Amino acid sequence: MKSLHRIAGRVSATAALTLLPLGVVAAPAAAQDDAKPAWDHAAPLTVSPSSGGRGTPVTVKAHCHPSGPATSEAFQQNITLRKAHDKKWIGTGHIKRSGLQVGRSYAVTVRCTDGVTLSTTFTFTAGTPSGGASAGFGGSGASGGGNTQATALAVGGGLTVAGAAGYVFLARRRRAGGHY
């Protein structure tokens, strides 16, 4: 009977140590996919940074073929978008140095050749720029709510350490003559 307990213990410990690394690898991948929308894995229009003061340089990214420039009352001039990689259109510009109200959000708009109009906002502040715009289907992903990939890695690492500690505990009990 004692040998049956030993065999069962070894089989379960081996199975646990074999499956735990799969959880560590799969958890970050699942969390990363959940944090993004299914249709495109990115917001259709982003402004980075999403807020800033006078003269702040901004980058506008659109996931459609624009029929014209990105426009906003906050821009010194309209921003021409140029084709980049992965079907993205990118342009850079600057925020006006005067005539804007602190704390107000200004609309940023891009019209696409397929007739869709994309929009987001830029908030004018007296301080320094911060984060990506929360636009479309999820914004920049890392602004505000935290990093889901880091959370998944921490949880997966914790499970791995707990499994290893449990294995060591059981192995020591067997050597000491315990029944587990």
Write a structural description.
The structure is a single chain. With 180 residues, the protein is of the alpha+beta class. It has a domain at 45-124: Sandwich (Immunoglobulin-like), CATH 2.60.40. It contains 2 helices and 7 strands; from the N terminus they run H-E-E-E-E-E-E-E-H. The strands form 2 sheets. Strands 1-3-5-4 form a 4-stranded antiparallel β-sheet, with no helix packed on it. A 3-stranded mixed β-sheet has the order 2-7-6, with no helix packed on it. Helix 1 (2-34) packs antiparallel against helix 2 (148-175). It is elongated, with a radius of gyration of 26 Å.
Concise overview:
This protein is of the alpha+beta class. It has helices spanning 2-34, 148-175; strands at residues 45-48, 51-52, 57-62, 82-83, 89-94, 105-111, 117-124.
DSSP strand content: 15-25%
* CATH topology annotation of the domain at 45-124: Immunoglobulin-like
Biggest beta-sheet profile: 4 strands, antiparallel
H/E topology pattern: HEEEEEEEH
Q: So what's the oligomer here? A: single chain
Q: Label the structural class.
A: alpha+beta
- The total strand number stands at 7
**CA-atom Rg in angstroms:** 26 Å
Mean pLDDT: 75
CA-CA gap between termini? 13 Å
CATH superfamily of the domain at 45-124: Immunoglobulins
> Count of helical segments?
2
Q: Are there runs of 5+ residues with pLDDT below 50, and where?
A: 33-40, 136-145
Residues in helices, as a percent range: 25-40%
Strand order of the largest sheet: 1-3-5-4
Instruction: Give the overall silhouette.
Output: elongated
CATH architecture label name of the domain at 45-124? Sandwich
